[in-house]
Design goal:
Layout: H1 2-14, H2 38-48, E1 60-63, H3 70-88, E2 92-98, H4 105-116, H5 127-141, E3 144-150, H6 158-171, E4 176-183, H7 194-200, E5 203-206, H8 212-226, H9 234-246, H10 251-267, H11 274-295, H12 298-311, E6 331-332, H13 333-346, H14 354-366, E7 370-374, E8 384-388, H15 392-403
Parallel strand pairs: 1-4, 1-5, 2-3, 3-4
Antiparallel strand pairs: 6-8, 7-8
Amino acid sequence: MGCLVLDLFEQELKKETLFRDRNVLSPHYVPDHLPHREKEINRIMKILAPALSQKHPSNLFIYGSTGTGKTATTKYVLKKLIEVREKYGAKVDSVYLNCRTYNTKYQVMLKLAQLAAPEENLMGYAFSHLYEKFTNYVNSKRVIFIAALDEIDKVKDLDELLYSLTRANDILESGHVCIIGISNRVTFKQKLDPRSKSTLCQEEMIFPPYNAEQLKAILLERCKEGLKEKTYTESAVALAAAFAARESGDARYALRLILKAGELADEESKKVVEEYVKKARAAVEEDVVVELINTLPQHQAIVLYGIALLSGKDGKYKRLAEEPPGKDRVLFSGEVYEEYKDLCKRWGLQPRSARWFREYLNELEMMGLITTMISGKGVRGNTRLIKMAFPKEKIIGALEKKLH
């Protein structure tokens, strides 16, 4: 058995592959050149540049839907900032944290304190002790510290974290703490305490979605690095770009399509052509839906679960006349809100207000999980109509694993 496993590994090592470097096709790879984000790079650099001469840069909040280059651009600028720091000996430091992992004020502060005192074991210490370690470091080193918090809306006690980080600047005799907040949700700042909004949101940027031509240019650059010469066609790349452009201009989705198409073609020792991109689309869409669902906050997930449950059955509300029989139902926002409240009560949870419910719908639509439209006059007044964007069976299956 051992020899057989070893043989398989050796076969894989010796196998001809069309990949030059798979990592280049990963959405997490940050290339040396970011096409069609030059304007955004220049603006972030201008905002952070004062830090290199010990001046206080403004806080920056960056918004935009998934795959618009927010993370890659921020990481790219921070990398360039550190390169300049090394060259000129500037007193600047930075950290990038994904708040899907560091999702409480304690976890964020623990990471900051560990950077300040890497030789100490700080796990288990009180928040106040971690805070003191971090602020002492900034103060004693007289450093401008830039904390980039990606998916910042995932932090459960966010207002308390932001209050602590901004309060640090009131007590520091030297140095300064600057925050870069990154969020997929343009409406994110509405959830902040008014005091946080007034002190934090000094500079704001919205990253627009990529169009098909821009996505094609991005993919072609990655393919040149990631795939061997003559192992892909430009028409296949253009098709992947077109598919991604329909998915809110998501560059991550485009890269996943090309990577999956490359894997499928690699298994058959062929080049990446349109056929493999089409096959990759089905596999990637399912992965993306499950991934999105797993990141949903609890109440958003319950709203989506309610929509999926109602989509395939008759409810208290009359079906719309133009709906074809046997298809998923177009739902009224009122019946979805009632279903959401019923599900919350069934699971012993306190339902959120109608205002929060409307916000959940906005965010689910922005992620492409549902579509909505205003009914117009004559259909129960001007009400909001809701429809699933994916087959309800897939959504229900993924949500039941998450919620139960």
